[in-house]
Specification:
Elements lengths: L6 H10 L7 H8 L14 H24 L4 H31 L7 H14 L5 H12 L10 H8 L8 H13 L1 H16 L4 H21 L1 H27 L11 H8 L2 E3 L13 H21 L8 H6 L9 H14 L7 E3 L1 H14 L14
Helix pairs in contact: 3-4, 3-11, 4-5, 4-6, 4-11, 5-10, 10-11, 11-16
């Protein structure tokens, strides 16, 4: 089992190792961990993040369309499509798991009407849960007393998918691979997305959903099967739902709250920081070249895709969000978490769980579940978004 790093100082040492490289702002974004003494070049805001996420989606659609329509060389076609699918899926996940997420918390803009309107438009486009139902289950239940109980619809989803305590770690990994590839999982997931847009929604939202779904069907009809599959279905349904599963599994430890454990303690004990990166080699002398080659491969093909697909935006520091869910400066997550982490360390009460590498976070969660006693579950009410 790959355990979390031991405390604030060891975690900070990993981030400090990146100081051997230029462009520290880039490494803060990639890793998700800030340096306490780094001065930012500019202050971000919600509008900038919304525009960036939309730009990623548009770029992704352009690249996947280019690969299907114009690129003739098969190798270049695959590379172009893969890059486009990465941007399209990660942009969609950023919009849903970060922009819409902070909209329902009321953090995007001061005007709640604007937050709701933006959320309704974006959730219609990406066929996910509307504002009111998402706000009810996430803000009032997942962040409230239902957290880490059978009434927590996220925990219920994990258990209903078969990731239950008491199973061996190998069985949980097998379940993970099977679920990622399972047609049933993807059909049920997408059916739930459609249902949340069409049933039990206000009339205006039903009209929005019907117009948008009709438009997508028309686009698919005129574009043809191949273009529809490679540009719309794979990035925004299959890959999107795979990314959602990985994020959900690694977001918390997913153990049922113990008797006598307070809600706040449960948030602290079950939430993880999922930093993307690993210690840099100590220098650039020839003796470190093999280490740099391994480091580069890991960052290009593991940490960077994980940062884009699974822990977009503030999700990398989701543990801080569960402690300070009312802070409006959500886009400043790395600096604010670092300030709090440094304070806790100075007071010798550091209790964050820092894990470097999303793959290590997955291993930690599945290991933790496997060590717990089995629990009896009946049918649980859950949701996937």
């Amino acid at each position: 089992m790959r355990r979390p790093v031991k405390g604030y100082h060891q975690s900070t040492e990993i981030r400090r190792s990146y100081e051997i490289l230029p462009f520290q702002g880039v490494w803060t974004w990639l890793t998700g961990k800030e340096l306490s003494d780094r001065k930012e070049m500019w202050q971000s805001n919600s509008t900038e993040r919304v525009l960036w996420s939309l730009a990623w989606v548009i770029l992704g659609i352009m690249l996947t369309s280019l690969a299907v329509i114009y690129v003739q060389n098969r190798t270049l076609q695959i590379l172009c499509w893969a890059m486009g699918a990465l941007f399209a899926t990660s942009g969609a996940r950023y919009i849903v798991a970060t922009i819409i997420h902070h909209s329902v918390h009321g953090h995007l803009y001061k005007s709640q009407r604007i937050n709701k309107a933006l959320c309704e438009i974006l959730s219609t486009i990406f066929i996910v849960q509307p504002y009111e139902s998402y706000r009810q289950f996430h803000v009032y239940e997942h962040h409230g007393r239902e957290f880490s109980t059978f009434e927590d619809k996220d925990l219920a989803a994990i258990y209903q998918l078969g990731f239950t305590p008491g199973k061996s770690k190998s069985a949980l990994y097998a379940r993970f691979i099977w679920t990622l590839l399972s047609p049933k999982f993807h059909l049920v997931f997408f059916y739930g997305r459609l249902k949340s847009n069409l049933i039990g929604v206000p009339f205006y939202r039903l009209v929005m959903s019907l117009i948008w779904l009709t438009s997508l069907c028309a686009i698919g009809y005129f574009a043809g099967h191949t273009l529809t599959l490679l540009v719309l279905v794979l990035p925004f349904i299959i890959l999107y739902q795979m990314a959602s599963l990985v994020h959900l599994l690694t977001e918390h430890v997913w153990l049922v709250r113990k008797e006598g454990e307070s809600v706040r303690d449960s948030h602290i004990n079950n939430c993880l920081a999922r930093f993307c990166g690993s210690t840099c080699p100590a220098g650039f002398a020839p003796q470190y070249w093999a280490s740099w080659a391994k480091w580069t491969v890991m960052h290009l093909f593991v940490h960077l895709p994980c940062r884009m697909l699974f822990v977009q935006g503030s999700l990398v520091c989701h543990d801080w969000h569960h402690r300070y869910g009312s802070v409006r400066q959500w886009y400043d997550y790395a600096r604010l978490r670092e300030m709090h982490a440094q304070k806790l360390s100075a007071e010798e009460r550091y209790d964050y769980i820092d894990i470097w590498g999303v793959h290590n976070a997955l291993d930690y969660v599945l290991s933790s579940l496997s060590k717990e006693a089995e629990v009896e579950i009946d049918h649980l009410e859950y949701r996937l978004n």
